[in-house]
């Protein structure tokens, strides 16, 4: 069995050590996912630039995408991280569970986003005209569509990294969806 280890600050490059210091200052700690990226000289700064790019999506909309994709991909790390972040962005625990399941009945626009995100992820972008029409009818634009796909890509990268490496989750663990609902 492979054992994937999260590097400490002293085990990463000087440029990644500076990023660790910035994360420590801004977030209060270096999440294990980011630390793991730092094993590679350029992966951490590249990923953070991608993740923090300007977007037409609101923080709540980004979290809808993050939660749906992370649930679909079975990434416990990202489910846990984004459950915490979604709560900080005003979602209730029940709303977060519903979003993770691919809907948001409490808000028509977010519901359309959750459903579109799920079908786009499942179908690898090959969605029906009906799904696209419902998405656009909720007020989203082609510009938003591009940002959503980029956000999906961001999450897929993180989901796959954790699913492969299985390093420790350093956020409060999100309950498995079936247990949380049942």
Q: Any overview of this molecule?
A:
The chain folds into 2 domains: 43 residues, no CATH class; 123 residues, AhpD-like, CATH 1.20.1290. It is 64% helix and 0% strand. It is built from 10 helices and no strands. The longest helix is centred in the C-terminal third of the chain and has 24 residues. The chain is globular. The two termini are 33 Å apart. The mean pLDDT is 96.
Residue ranges: pLDDT <50 for 5 or more in a row?
none
- Whole-number radius of gyration? 17 Å
CATH class of the largest domain: Mainly Alpha
CATH topology of the largest domain: AhpD-like
Distance between the termini: 33 Å
Summarize the amount of helix as a percent range.
55-70%
Classification by helices and strands? mainly alpha
Largest sheet: none
Oligomer: single chain
- Give the averaged pLDDT, no decimals: 96
What is the second-level CATH architecture of the largest domain?
Up-down Bundle
**Number of structural units classed as domains:** 2
